[in-house]
Amino acid sequence: MTAGASTADALDLPPGDDDLSARLLPAARAAHARYVAELVELTSFDSGTWNAAGKRRVVQWCSARLHEIGAQVDVVDVDADTDGPPVGPALVARLAVPGTARVLLLGHSDTVFADGTAARRPPRQVDGRLTGPGVCDDKGGVLAGIHALTLLAELPGPRTGEAVLLLSPDEEVGSPRTLALLQTHAERADVILGLEGSRENGDLVVARKGACDVRIELRGRAAHAGIEPERGADAALAAARLVLDLHRAAADRPGVSVNVGVVRAGDRPNVVADEAELQLEVRAPTAAALDEILDTVDGLVTAATQGGITGRSVRTDYCPPFEPSPGSAALLHLAELLGARIGVAVRGASTGGVSDTNFAAVTGIPALDGLGPVGGGDHGEDEWIDLDSVPYRIALLAGLVAEAGRVVHQNTTEKEA
Active-site residue numbers? Predict the structure, then answer.
């Protein structure tokens, strides 16, 4: 039996109908109309990554809503001492909750959509779905987190746990300005719960691939393409061969992908190209596999530097994988138990997309993602969430926050043993 299986199997919930789950679901249903109205409001204006005003508006709205339930809210300037356009503030909210664990909830206020998208494509309800820019990624999840905290704030009894909600304004570009803040709070947490939408089939996320962007620059030698092409060193040809080599390198590595998304070479058709550029993204399920394929990319660039061609590769925007762990397995099992109490079948899945949970989970703290409503079509014109799933997902999330201490206690017991 693996460590993950041991931790999961040791978890249990007391029997009985009069339990936390039974109290949470009716309350979530009662607040459903408010959730829908609030999500329509949140998705009715633009908040792309470089729209700092839009993110400030999201943060102001969420701050007011969180103050209603007694949360302590801090608005954090992440643009200070940085170059480039502003992204707007991050939000950190703290709330005393039932339970014994310190739980970090991760969401983001930015979307991928250009200014004007919300006016051109406002939120709409169609056949039980709400569509709109950012409705699933990630405003629906952010709002689900706020509603889950609202349920917990309304429960009677002692509040020895703490929930910390962190909203980053730059997740869609890898959270470069929020990273230090995010990892600081992750290191202080007992459990990390990501508010990205669940998979279209309802699965939660127990693992995410890591990713890294690579820019490859090739230099050759220009020559007249009609009179003396042999005097040139064709950077375009070297780039074409390198594209094929890069794809072949990933083909025999399970779960590894190399996508060459941008290819540029030369500037005139009658001149042998003296320069070329490739921009690619590499993804892999483990840190070891990601490092290995990145080293292979560097080696292929070195091999391409012959016949007058020189080159170099530059890595940017490295995001570590969110790898499966015993702690994540225990959180998933707890979600299965809680889901059974409210009639939700819970399963776990791995995905190729990255999120802030990747950066948080690298600390080794137990993590689970995809706890927002069921949805899909992220980054596209048909992005949606399933409105019927919302009360169940909010109740499940609130239950996980309150019961997360079971995972912490079991992990501590196993370490001491």
Answer: 110, 171
